[in-house]
Design a protein that fits this description.
Enzyme class: transferase
InterPro entries: Thiolase, Thiolase-like, Thiolase_acyl_enz_int_AS, Thiolase_AS, Thiolase_C, Thiolase_CS, Thiolase_N
Oligomer: single chain
Strand content: 15-25%
Organism: Lates calcarifer (Barramundi)
GO cellular component, one term: mitochondrial fatty acid beta-oxidation multienzyme complex
CATH superfamily of the largest domain: Thiolase/Chalcone synthase
CATH class of the largest domain: Alpha Beta
CATH architecture of the largest domain: 3-Layer(aba) Sandwich
Order of helices and strands: EEEEHEHEHEHHHHEEHEHEHEHHHHHEE
CATH topology of the largest domain: Peroxisomal Thiolase, Chain A, domain 1
Keywords: Acetylation, Acyltransferase, Endoplasmic reticulum, Fatty acid metabolism, Lipid metabolism, Membrane, Mitochondrion, Mitochondrion inner membrane, Mitochondrion outer membrane, Transferase, Transit peptide
């Protein structure tokens, strides 16, 4: 179904977009967000490996293998000389101890000049968002002209540690100077010392898993199990249509050593409401509403984007995809407001940009849980919540539903923690080109009660 808005000269989609939309698109003509004396910073290109369910085809790799593949894909797609990049920044959450600065290891493996500095950042699910905005800061400050940012997460193999007592004993053994000291330490080891410490997706400050927080947030805003399942089904259905119609242009093919060539995300699985209703609660039992079907799944994957000053990009012959404009980071109570980052970040970034919700043509929000998305939209729609938190009203679902995550999201495409931010920004740029919009909004929640929001402006076509 197409709705034609004569005032904006825009063909805008409802929930199910057609692959033929671009042939009829007339790009909106609004004011630009460029500011006098402020450097224009552009997204030149973005790529990602296919996002795969953990424990599948990528299972025998390491994180830097995926990051290297994304970097090589970016090099191939842009043709940028390997020594023309000034800096490389990667985001990740669960670090492989052998490659703690995965940005540097992946860059060297991808063949970038060893003279290019690289560092790794971590900010939970907005780690690659932080990588990108750090790149923006370097360019805005005049330190760099071209920066590669990205993210990687590898949940197929996470660090599992010995217990603390066992670690202390082993370190003491390493320092022991006599046989007697060594035998005494070995004799002190008890069976309980051998129990491993397993990593958990839980808040250190509250000891609560994110799933528990999602369940409580959904209950607080009256999000039903049916609403959550409907949204999850929507995400998978839209992702499958986008994949089948070739809209996921950022996905590159990757030859996995000793395995097949991977060219598609493998977590996209449209189901039915009847099948989803059969699943039991995953976190709060037996009355919770968050299930495996309406939650994002553990995912392996990597992403990379090329960010440049507009002047440098044009001088090198590139046609940028979008301008990276205003952005904000927010933080709130990690207990009761853990996943409300989009609600807090969205009005702040819109105010910085001088825009309203109705000005935004493309919305891409990170889908940690269906309940989290619906709770954020209901929070934005709530007069009392908006007035209490922001001091003004901001409407969520009513303003954005027909423009919201139309190519699927983290629930269906997958969510490699450190890599999702680049996917969101690249998707906004591609959707703006495809749909003829001018402004896009990215928003995401993250562990620790933090969040990020960014406004992206289409580059003139």
């Amino acid at each position: 179904v197409l709705f034609i808005y004569s005032s904006g000269q825009k063909l805008c989609k409802t929930i199910f977009p057609s692959s033929q939309l671009s042939e009829s698109v007339i790009t909106k003509s609004k004011k630009t967000l460029a500011r006098p004396g402020v450097k224009n910073i552009v997204l030149v290109e973005g790529v990602r490996t296919p996002f795969l369910l953990s424990g599948t085809t990528y299972a025998d790799l390491m994180p830097h293998d995926l990051a290297r593949a994304a970097l090589q894909g970016l090099l191939h797609k842009t043709g940028i000389p390997k020594d023309a990049v000034d800096y490389i920044i990667y985001g990740t959450v669960i670090q492989e101890v052998k490659t703690s600065n995965v940005a540097r290891e992946a860059a060297l493996g991808a063949g970038f000049s060893d003279k290019i500095p690289a560092h790794t950042v971590t900010m939970a699910c907005i780690s690659s968002n932080q990588a990108m905005t750090s790149a923006v800061g370097l360019i805005a400050a005049g330190q760099c002209d071209a920066v590669v940012a990205g993210g990687v997460e590898f949940m197929s193999d996470v660090p599992i540690r010995h217990s603390r007592k066992m670690r202390k004993t082993m370190l003491s053994l390493n320092r022991a100077k006599t046989l007697g000291q060594r035998l005494s330490l070995i004799g002190s080891i008890r069976l309980a010392h051998l129990s491993p410490e397993l990593p958990a997706v839980a808040e250190f400050s509250t000891a609560e898993t994110m799933g528990h927080s999602a369940d409580r947030l959904a209950a607080a805003f009256g999000v039903s199990r049916v609403e959550q399942d409907e949204f999850a089904l929507r995400s998978h259905t839209l992702a499958k249509k986008a994949q089948d119609n070739g809209l996921l242009q950022d996905v590159i093919s990757f030859k996995v050593p000793n395995r097949d060539i991977v060219s598609k995300d493998n977590g996209i699985r449209p189901s039915s409401m009847e099948q989803m209703a059969k699943l039991k609660p995953a976190f709060i039992k037996p009355h919770g509403t968050v299930t495996a079907a309406n939650s994002s799944f553990l995912t392996d994957g990597a992403s990379a984007v090329l960010i440049m000053s507009e002047e440098k990009a044009l001088a090198m012959g590139y046609k940028p995809k979008a301008y990276l404009r205003d952005f904000v980071y927010v933080s709130q109570d990690p207990k009761d407001q853990l996943l409300l980052g989009p609600t807090y970040g969205t009005p702040k970034v819109l105010e910085r940009a001088g825009l309203s919700m109705s000005d935004i043509d493309v919305f891409e929000f990170h889908e940690a849980f269906a309940g989290q998305i619906m709770a954020n939209l209901k929070a934005m729609d709530s007069d009392w919540f908006a007035a209490d938190v922001h001091g003004k009203e901001i409407k969520g679902k009513d303003s954005c539903w027909s423009k919201f995550n139309l190519w699927g999201g983290s629930l269906s495409l997958g969510h490699p923690f450190g890599a999702t931010g680049c996917r969101l920004v690249t998707t906004v740029a591609h959707r703006l080109q495809k749909e003829g919009g001018q402004y896009g909004l990215v928003a995401a929640c993250a562990a620790g009660g933090q969040g990020h929001a960014m406004v992206i402006e289409a580059y003139p076509q």
